[in-house]
Amino acid sequence: MFKRLCLIGIGLIGSSIALRARQEGLAETIVVSTRRQETLDRAKARNLGDVYTDKVSEAVQGADCVILCTPVGSFASLGERIGPHLADGCIVTDVGSVKRSVVKQLKPHLPKNVHLVPGHPIAGTEYSGPDAGFATLFDERWCLLTPEQGTDKQAVEKLTSFWQGLGSWVEVMEPDHHDMVLAVTSHIPHLIAYNIVGTASELEEVTQSEVVKFSASGFRDFTRIAASDPVMWRDVFLHNKDAVIEMLGRFSEDLSRLQRAVRNGDGDLLFEHFTKTRDIRRGIIEAGQETDLPNFGRDVVVDTESNS
Amino acid sequence: MFKRLCLIGIGLIGSSIALRARQEGLAETIVVSTRRQETLDRAKARNLGDVYTDKVSEAVQGADCVILCTPVGSFASLGERIGPHLADGCIVTDVGSVKRSVVKQLKPHLPKNVHLVPGHPIAGTEYSGPDAGFATLFDERWCLLTPEQGTDKQAVEKLTSFWQGLGSWVEVMEPDHHDMVLAVTSHIPHLIAYNIVGTASELEEVTQSEVVKFSASGFRDFTRIAASDPVMWRDVFLHNKDAVIEMLGRFSEDLSRLQRAVRNGDGDLLFEHFTKTRDIRRGIIEAGQETDLPNFGRDVVVDTESNS
Fold it and tell me: Closest to A267 (Cβ–Cβ): which among B187, B213, B238?
């Protein structure tokens, strides 16, 4: 599909792309570029690419597809450095969790005959780095592409096929709408999880050891996403400020309503709210985006006694 | 251990106690009592007890241990109905998620020679009902007992051994402290999860279908606990109002701080906060209360390619 695929950044997402692209034969040559020698060594050890370099300007030369897999805060600087070295007809894309900012950061630096098609695979884990990737990460997960109007159709189609080859379902979306949707489904959940884990670990009345021991009562679920990569998430919030603050406002308004219900002992309101929220999980399970095993299946035990 | 164990309520927790108690031979006779005939029939079909009745006053007669496994809002009424029928020396306990209110609701109704030892196993899933229980639910999970000062030591010891027999680790705690700890580790996480799932499903700008499709970006984690039993959770909030409102205040203060950092573009504050929260998950994994598999192990795939 691509002759020379260049991955800039080789963390969880970059390494997963590399593994699957190689498995499926989606690129003749895979160029891996990353700043830190240690990361490059790990990528080599896992045999993620064919060419390895810490120089991005060299990495992109002759590539027909360049994928930025670094935190989104690095894109303006990367664009500036790779822009002059991009080949005619090259597709430049990324895997960042915000999209309006990506266009804004990259566009000024790209030559005319290069196709910018920002992308965002909705897949990941709480682990990061080149050892965290695995080839099936994108299977049956959505990848959103947010090309601007007027973008070369063939470039969008080619990138669509590429992501389908990685196992994804692909949808095209406006960057602003993307940023609003992801603020709700991802950015606010992460901010809230980071927040409550912070709150819990700084209490005077409750020791950290108690929080840890009794976490199976609900708290531990939040610690997973609060263990996500700090640099990546810092950049997400800095680059999707407006949508995050807008959605955080809605969240806080709604929380005030529940808080008032607790204060006033309004059991009917609580019951009604808690009943409605059950349906949406059912929808997510039916859409193939979640397991229906209790506790995410994390303590699945074959229990013959209870199944008899 | 017990001659006649009476379980009032046979949902997720009650049925799990029944299965494990029978497996370990912790009770000669298990009496199952529940209000709804349909639930009683399911309990019979799963062979959870030896005696089944919808009359609690009959159920408790002759029992040396009675465990209330119904939502905590029912305890005052249950106490009133069972009080006159309890045998001398009987241990009365429960599995409710709040503890001060349990003492307050039950104590006035219990005769002198009965031992009240409130309990709370820190274990569960998002499923409810007699079919949701399984014998290993309590394995390596903590169970908190909150007897008042002056409670018969032998009763506390016996109940401790019983929970250990079910697979739990046991700790004794003051009821007020319990309610504060659980507000943080459980009640606030649930309220927040219920809240954000509500917020997301009521937006005009983002369709419910988008929330479902792109939920793998973080949101789906929250839907699990927001799918928990609505009656149980309504009662938890009504019966732990003070601690919940206190801890919600801390949560909101902390969230305002993060919100301000997003608004001001304070990347250092965000990075620092997001770094600290990683440690607590590590602690929970090391304490045996969580899996270290990515995404809770829910999409574990044996990937020989990437492990080579």
Answer: B238
